[in-house]
Amino acid sequence: MAKQTTFEERIEIVEYAITHNRNYKETAAKFNVSYQQVRAWVLKVDRNGFPALKDRRGHHKAESEMSEVERLKLENRRLKAELNDKKAIEAFAKKLLALKKPKP
Known about the structure:
mainly alpha; 2 domains; 0% strand; elongated
């Protein structure tokens, strides 16, 4: 299982790796993370600086940042999800009624 790290911990790990001549193996052992992860973080920092270490999974654009096409696609997905929910509720209700009916 991978170790969970905070943004501050990732900064500390990358700084350590860089100051120790990019010794990824030593850094990985010291901080109990994988060699590949240390190397990936260092490369991210090289390309885009320390803000690149932030975990951006699950973050979405605000509606004010979206183009009209993106807003329409989002609305379309929302409406399709609502329709699927309604269909599932109807199917459940129909099945429940069929089970409650007395058999002749």
